[in-house]
Amino acid sequence: MYKALYRKYRPLTFDDVVSQSHITTTLKNQIINGKTAHAYLFTGSRGTGKTTCARILAKALNCLHPVNGEPCLECEICRDADNGALADIIEIDAASNNGVDDVRELRDGAVYTAERCKYRIYIIDEVHMLTKEAFNALLKIMEEPPAHVKFILATTEIHKVLPTILSRCQRYDFHRILPEDITKRLLYVAEQEKITLEHDAAELIAKTADGGMRDALSLLDQCMAFSETVTAETVSMAAGIAGREPLFDIMEAAADVNTGKAVSVIASLYDMSKDMQKLCDELIEQFRNVMMAKAVPENLELLVCLPEELERIKALAAKMSLETIMSKLEILQYANERIARAASKRTEMEMCMLKLCSQTVSRTSEPPAELLTKIDMLERRVAELSAGNTVYRPQRQERYSPPPAADNDNSSAPQKDLSQMKMEDFVNEDRWDDILEKFLEICPAVSGTLVGSRAIKGGGYMLIYTGNSFLLPLLKNPDNAAKLRDAIRMVTGETYAVRAKYVPPQNGPADGGEGKLKSIVKKAQDSNIPVEN
Hints:
Blueprint lengths: L4 H4 L12 H13 L5 E5 L6 H13 L13 H7 L6 E5 L6 H11 L9 E6 L6 H12 L5 E7 L7 H4 L3 E4 L5 H14 L3 E2 L1 H11 L3 H14 L2 E2 L1 H8 L4 H12 L3 H13 L4 H20 L14 H10 L2 H18 L5 H12 L12 H18 L40 E2 L3 H11 L1 H4 L6 E5 L2 E6 L4 H5 L2 H15 L4 E6 L11 H13 L7
Parallel strand pairs: 1-4, 1-5, 2-3, 3-4, 6-7, 10-11
Antiparallel strand pairs: 8-9, 9-10
Helix pairs in contact: 3-4, 5-6, 8-9, 9-10, 9-11, 10-11, 12-13, 13-17, 14-15, 14-16, 16-17, 19-22
């Protein structure tokens, strides 16, 4: 019966394990010195050798004739372990045996000594899948196990493992396997299987596998079924990926603002049944390379690309600014989230191309609510610091009561028509900083949006101009507007109708231009912010 390559070429000794020498060397030394732990935890991404190392470690601990910390592979224990016929090495899949009853059964069996081996070893794969109750049931025996019992846990999601379990294990982090190491292994396997594997095809498989040897061998297996001579084109067809040329065609079209070319490439790839989700992933990966080439050209080792792709990546980086590259990356990442849920993945990808090839690319859309909240908190802190406080401490807000009206309250007096007022009708509000400080006491949640603002007054109006666009929607709340008006009255003793508008600093009245002032006045009048007189 045919055996999959990733099973057929699974390492049998520590020396066969690829790219994890920092772990295998330590484990071999522990076995040589007889100082092995009672519990190990192997963590890392898929296909990096966690389960393989667990099996080798279990085999080496029980081997009758270990050689320099390695299993001999010749004794009956090693042979039975490799054939899965050794009852003293128990593998448990926590994904399907994750309940408390399964762990209780494990505990009941652990009290018995090993039948043929020195140790009874439990390998628990995907241990993060255990329920909280199962973890708690496992905790006691892992804390004080019998001398003949050892545990080897493996997981891809270390953050889901309880801290109490983590503290009782020796933890080993498996790195993603280097592309050059995967390439070397693939070429070796191809030679053993008597097939022709071109070097650039092996490199493309290694890149597609994203650090996982199992994924790489599985893809090679698929390519071998497609053709006995495996080329880069074979890999692209078998894996459903776009390949090098179409990817760079799209990226160059984005850099040259050539929408027609980008959409044509998408249509061609779609006709060849290429996966739009994978295409988006590949574009993100390559644009990330362009970003790194632009931002840190002195550290090209950070790029994840084939050697022959490097010059084209550099050329693309030279065509675009860093901000433009990051903008296009954000568009791709946003599209990647939507494609997974889209009814028509082609349409979603074409929409992405239209945005990607736009002459003006906006890096951000309207900020999410969480971001607005954080910005609000930051601005409040800045406002307090500018008012003389050194530490921001949120305080319970007492119910606000407006102060009594001053004797010279002119809120009922008619205001002049703003559009008819001239520059000489306005003067700067000299006590604006005092007003801001008072407003901070009354309404700290909104006061941060006024940092850096200025105000002019005249004709019964207080005109506020600011570079912070968040102020406008906040002042549309009648309560906020009333509190600002009350802060003005408490400082100046007078009541003004309040108007505000976002105005870039160069358009403010500080430039002395009468025309610009009229523009500000007109915009303030049109803003329609409700003000109680």
